[in-house]
Amino acid sequence: MRLPKGGLIDRDQVVRFSFDGRHYEGLAGDTLASALLANGVRLMGRSFKYHRPRGVLTAGSEEPNALVTVGQGGRQAPNLRATMLELHEGLVARSQNAWPSLEWDLLALNDAFAPFLSAGFYYKTFMWPRSFWEKLYEPIIRRAAGLGALSGAHDSDTYEKAHVHCDLLVIGGGPAGLMAALVAARAGADVILADEDTRVGGRLNAEREDVDGKPGHAWASEVEAELAAMENVRVMTRTTVTGAYDQGSYGALERLPADVAARAGAPRECFWRIVARRAVMAAGALERPVAFAGNDRPGVMMAGAVRAYINRWAVAPGRRVAVFGNNDGAHRTAADLVAAGVHVAALVDSRPDARNDLDVPFFAGAQVCGSSGRKALEAVEIEVAPGRREKIQADCLAMSGGWNPSVHLACHMGARPEWSEEIAGFVPRDGMVPGMSAAGACAGAMSTHACLRDGAKAAQDALGELGLKAAKLPDVPDAGDAPYRIRPLWQVPGRGRAWLDFQNDVTVKDVTLAARENFRSVEHMKRYTTQGMAPDQGKNSNVGALAVLADATGRSIPETGTTTFRPPYVPVPIAAMGAGAQGQGFAPRRLTTSHAASLAMGAPMIEVGLWYRPSFFPRAGETTWRQSCDREVAHVREAVGIADVSTLGKIDIQGADAARFLDFVYTNTFSTLKVGRVRYGVMLREDGHVMDDGTTARLGEDHFVMTTTTAAAGQVMRHLEFVHQCLCPDWDVSMISVTEQWAQFAVAGPKSRDLLNGVLDMPVDGEGFPFMGCGAVTLAGVAARLFRISFSGEHAYEIAVPARYGASLFRLLVARAEEMGGGAYGMEALNVLRLEKGLLTHAELHGRTTAFDLGMERMISANKDCIGKAAAARPGLTEPDRERLVGLKPVGAVKQLTAGAHLFDEADAATRENDQGYVTSVGFSPTLGHYVGLGFLKRGSDRYGDVIRMVDHLRGVEALCEVTPPAFFDPDGGRARD
Amino acid sequence: MRFSGLRVLKEGLTGNKGWQPHWRDPEPKPAYDMIIIGGGGHGLATAYYLAREHGLTNVAVLEKGYIGGGNVGRNTTIVRANYFLPGNSEFYSHSLRLWEGLEQELNYNVMHSQRGLINLFHSDGQRDAFARRGNAMINQGDDAELLDRDGVRRHLPYLDFDNARFPIYGGLYHPRGGTARHDAVAWGYARGADQRGVDLIQNCEVTGIDIEQGRVTGVQTTRGAIRAKKVGIVVAGRSGQVAAMAGMRLPIESHILQAFVTEGLKPCIDHVVSFGMGHFYISQSDKGGLVFGGDLDFYASYAQRGNMPMMEHVMEAGMTLMPMIGKARVLRSWGGIMDMTPDGSPVIDKAPVEGLYLNCGWCYGGFKAVPGSGYSFAHLMATDRPHAPAAGFRLDRFQTGRGLMDEEGTGSQHNLH
Amino acid sequence: MRISCPICGERDRREFYYQGAAVALDRPAPDAAAQAWDDYLHNRDNPAGPVREMWHHEAGCGAWLVVTRDTVTHEMLASDLASRVQEAGS
């Protein structure tokens, strides 16, 4: 029911919305929860396990009951708190976890079976018969569990992430936070003030209380205006600080208002990474329920929430309201109700010595011990004296078991808070999160004045640590400074179920049962009962459950322990923390200079690491990739082919000790390499396994350029820097990656020299550029590098030009090649060409192979040390029955080979015990007319000529193969040298 | 007390008053035949199988906190047998067979759910590597199927097949893979061991290992000295510290692995799905939470908490692979301490000190190994001979280079496995 | 997490590559005993507390660093260039 006056709402601006298909009107400034209450809607959700009818309990992000779903398809968002959902025109909200409707939920039957569904019951049953778990029990449990639903459609909203730095992060914009921000900002510090509400003020917006002689919310607005006008301040409302991490890093989630998020391209939410030199946590406190029988009925609410609905939203949550508490907040609530003209049916204070100044029915030393009503509260039962009960009609109960300081963020780094007897709650210790202090209610300051004072003091201390000086500590404004008087009350004894965790339906009985079954550790109790594991993260229930456990096990609360608070402080959408990654954004795309030309030629592109490379270049009439691949292989073998090889890592290495350095990182010797020559090298990890291979050219006495495989370029660069800086920092050598700076193309095939001589300014010959020669050339006046190296086994070159010339050179080379009966070739042909020659890629260099396995043991120079040499000599890495590299060719009826198949002796069953090796790479060789493969076989190099059985269970292929040396084509390498 | 549906019914009708403690809390005796240091999944399973398979019940499990408080209670609950290197293959295969039927064996519903696991691949090279793995699984007697893109689509229609940064080529399907309720595994083994007479001693931290003339004689604890003929160290995450009490230095670095769970949601992910390019794996718990994780935080740590960069990376991987989970809200994140070894595989072996046994180095694969590890370690401790499926987990393999089990192929840098 | 690079100042952890304990600086002689190599490559003190370790400012200046960090609290205690540490003969 909307009250006739008051509230921080705009009565002129009506907002239409719907809930479960029924249309309502609210006001600007409402949340969904306040608007529903204003319309008399009490039933807003169903609980998780028993599907109990539930109404709104709180007025904040800790809300456990009023969870709704908004949106459809890619915009469907489940489990939104009605208390945090800003009402906007056209909002369509639906209830969840109820079927067929919220009013009539079939699974409410569970409630009748509650005795059989006690804590952990599922660990004790559903075991027979065994096969029924996956088929029957689990599907039923899964369907019954869960709250809201995802739509299954890809998320179609936009999200953002951002970084920001500041001197001081103030977490929470209540009186303590506002004061802290003000003091720090006036001293010139860069300040961020973050608050999860739509407006700063915190409890000041919910209470009838003056600050500095004006209404608290008005004071807050004035401070906000002052802060907003300062350039060194960023006030971030709708922003929840979600986690505290190392070295002053904080995560925060900003929700954008619906009208902003609706603009084209605008994000719905933004995840902030805040780096703060200091932080003041002013996160306030959360009120806690009292466990009594039937305390979960719609209409039972937190007293502070009742005040918020009355004072901030001008909504009366009931017509006849009972109030029940163990602290002075109950009286404040009754006073606010009276002031708003709402009938107070009873004021129940569990403290026997409590006094009352209000003209309302008052019960001191009494407790609410029961409730009645079907889908909404109708009456409460009060134990007015031991054994004497009175039933009072009420449609709303405002309850307060006291306040829990919001210590969550302080606990995110693993420190535990301490118990304060004075306020009967956990308070933070100093230094729980380095650089962060606590101020206000979250530190146990329970009056507005104490919060203001605390906030100012925290800012002063932070300024000192930052080396800034507060101009002058402002006078702390006048504000209420009443003491917080509380007498702990966790549970009201009696029959019936008393709820602790409303959302997961954990009752006092569940906790005492857990204790009886020896789940006495608080962690055991939590895990056994699921207490605190629902979407409210135990904010409403953890301390109460701990107290009940302490009672059940005869220990004090501090002896029983604390619960662990883990990030995030409020649940955060995956899409916000993963913003930008959907679709292509997950990883950078690296494109070669020939990318556009390859696309124009119709080449399908494939990912190689972060790079894109052409798979093949289809021509008219070709319908399968194999046709294109076979043709491209033939181009290279018979005429000339062009391939972009720029993705290979290129590292420029210079210095007087460059040659010595290469001797150290490669197994073989490079100091003997002549200027103008290239050598193939193998590099080990220090653990003796092969890291990478490639060629290195000596361009000058002290100047080399190394190539790495595409996949290992980054790893090799890092490794070289490590070896230099950490193992031989005094050597004169420098290195830099030049992968991006040079575009490099393979020109391969018998006509490759003719092609090059048609484009180079000065022709080359076999004398100037013998096999494995290199040197400077020019083409059209552009300085280029030419290497006579071959990954195809043909007479071949790689020509490198500054990257800005790559695109035009590629087009030129391909055009010339086509004129000469050749053309571009892609990764498929490249792979077949290297397989025919038995050359290696990371299919073979997969990190578990040694030089010995590859038949390259002689490449480990005996005359010098190198990285990995000692470890490669370990006995297990050189034993003859290791799996060693071989070639494989089909010799039986089945002519196909498959990579990933395993190898067995012909007569053996295909079992692990008989496993002889496996196939790493295969391809059809158009040159040889049959499949060729590489693989690793136990004692492989001793078994050339043997027939072995290849078995691929997965693809259903079995083939007999001959074991051969790895090189199938031109094994002595004459074609490349000619 | 035997658990059954009937018992639940009976207790429900009589006010649930008859339930008994799932295990006792005995005072430590002055001496035992054997002591297991560590009341996590592996330690409790070891104690259970010592009693069950070898009749050894004069055994104590010493736990510094509460049982099941380590990694068995903070993992992503995945159970699988999809390893391919000899040594691993037979071990995880044996472990999976023990999982199958664990509820009946323990009379405790650990909710082992064989919902199927799919490892996605994103290039021809990855496909071939997964084919090698899948064939090895079948050679071992386990199950595997190679799915093409359409095959994956039939199982997981909600993936982004059209615009993911790394296109989905297919997947390796392991139908017997799945999940289990992690805490229940610890509790089930604890109850089983307790029922057979093993003493589970909580809040009992070992502070020293007594060694006389090269032989173990007992341990010092915060609850006094306890003698024992044999001592097994089963404290993954803290292996280095406890081994140091016996003068050992282990091939282990401790690293943090984060995991995440969302708010409860109606069923939407029916399998365990693993993303080959993004270090991301996800399943949905029976309560409805999406349970997922990614790679290590990559630096040595005992902090049991994660950091933002890896958290964000995991979310990013999820968003590129299955953008339908965008509006699921992360409820909790946590970190476990992983014993990372130089080849990513564990150690079940005798220590150089007589009577001392080591079970460590489970990296981030320890949960699925719980039954097999307990079984094999009990065998080793009881008979002083390695149990065949775990015979490859030798401590000296790094020094000799024999039988390294580097499934990732990244070599001796501990955090890369 | 924030790490101090002696060249660039304090930077986000995302810019760095982690390698492990700074034992990596103490490469044994090529002919050292198998145990020495095993200790170098595999065995670790792995303390719960301060540890010296190798970080590479890979997405920054490229320097390899020796960082002293507490593995329990993640507190950064010291940071130096690996080359400087090595040349000083640590």
Describe the SSE topology.
The complex is a heterotrimer of chains A (978), B (417) and C (90).
Chain A: E1 10-19, E2 22-28, H1 32-38, E3 45-46, E4 53-54, E5 67-70, E6 77-81, E7 91-94, H2 109-112, H3 132-144, E8 159-171, H4 175-186, E9 191-194, E10 210-211, E11 214-215, H5 216-228, E12 233-236, E13 239-245, E14 249-255, H6 258-261, E15 269-281, E16 285-287, E17 300-302, H7 303-311, E18 320-325, H8 329-339, E19 343-349, E20 362-364, E21 367-372, E22 379-385, E23 388-393, E24 396-400, E25 403-405, E26 418-420, E27 425-427, E28 436-438, H9 448-466, E29 499-501, E30 506-507, H10 508-516, H11 522-529, H12 542-552, H13 557-560, E31 572-573, H14 574-577, H15 595-600, E32 605-608, E33 611-614, H16 625-638, E34 641-644, E35 649-654, H17 658-665, E36 678-684, E37 690-700, E38 703-708, H18 713-727, E39 734-737, E40 742-748, H19 752-759, E41 774-779, E42 782-787, E43 796-802, H20 806-819, E44 823-824, H21 827-836, H22 869-872, E45 883-890, E46 902-904, E47 917-925, E48 930-938, E49 947-952, E50 957-964, H23 974-977
Parallel strand pairs in A: 1-7, 8-9, 8-15, 9-12, 15-28, 17-24, 18-19, 18-24, 19-20, 34-44
Antiparallel strand pairs in A: 1-2, 3-4, 5-6, 5-7, 10-11, 13-14, 14-15, 16-25, 21-22, 22-23, 26-27, 29-30, 32-33, 34-40, 35-38, 35-39, 36-37, 37-38, 40-43, 41-42, 42-43, 45-48, 45-50, 46-47, 46-49, 47-48, 49-50
Chain B: H1 5-13, E1 31-37, H2 41-54, E2 59-62, E3 78-79, H3 88-99, H4 102-106, E4 117-121, H5 124-139, E5 145-148, H6 149-155, E6 170-174, E7 178-179, H7 182-195, E8 199-201, E9 206-212, E10 215-221, E11 224-233, H8 239-244, E12 253-262, E13 272-275, E14 280-284, E15 290-300, H9 308-321, E16 329-340, E17 347-350, E18 356-360, H10 366-383, H11 397-400
Parallel strand pairs in B: 1-2, 1-11, 2-8, 4-13, 11-18
Antiparallel strand pairs in B: 3-7, 4-6, 5-6, 9-10, 10-11, 12-15, 12-16, 13-14, 14-15, 17-18
Helix pairs in contact in B: 2-7, 2-10, 3-10
Chain C: E1 2-5, E2 9-12, E3 17-21, H1 34-41, E4 50-56, E5 64-70, E6 76-81, H2 82-87
Antiparallel strand pairs in C: 1-2, 3-4, 4-5, 5-6
Protein architecture, described:
The complex is a heterotrimer of chains A (978), B (417) and C (90). Chain A is of the alpha+beta class. Chain A has 6 domains: 1-152, Roll (Ubiquitin-like (UB roll)), CATH 3.10.20; 159-285 and 405-466, FAD/NAD(P)-binding domain, CATH 3.50.50; 291-402 and 485-560, FAD/NAD(P)-binding domain, CATH 3.50.50; 595-643 and 741-834, Gyrase A, domain 2; 649-737, Aminomethyltransferase beta-barrel domains (Alpha-Beta Plaits), CATH 3.30.70.1400; 880-978, Aminomethyltransferase beta-barrel domains (Elongation Factor Tu (Ef-tu), domain 3). Chain A is elongated and about 110 Å long. The mean pLDDT of chain A is 96. In chain B, helix 2 runs parallel beside helix 7, helix 2 (41-54) crosses helix 10 and helix 3 crosses helix 10. Chain B is globular. Chain C is α+β, with helices and mostly antiparallel strands. In chain C, the strands form 2 sheets. A 4-stranded antiparallel beta sheet of chain C has the order 3-4-5-6. A two-stranded antiparallel ribbon of chain C has the order 1-2. In chain C, 16% of the residues lie in helices and 37% in strands. Chain C has a single domain, classed as Folate-binding fold (2-Layer Sandwich). The chains are: A alpha+beta (978), B alpha/beta (417), C alpha+beta (90). Chains A and B meet through strand 6, helix 3, helix 10, helix 11 and strand 31 of A and helix 1, helix 5, helix 7, helix 9 and strand 16 of B. Strand 31 of chain A pairs antiparallel with strand 16 of chain B, so a sheet runs across the interface.
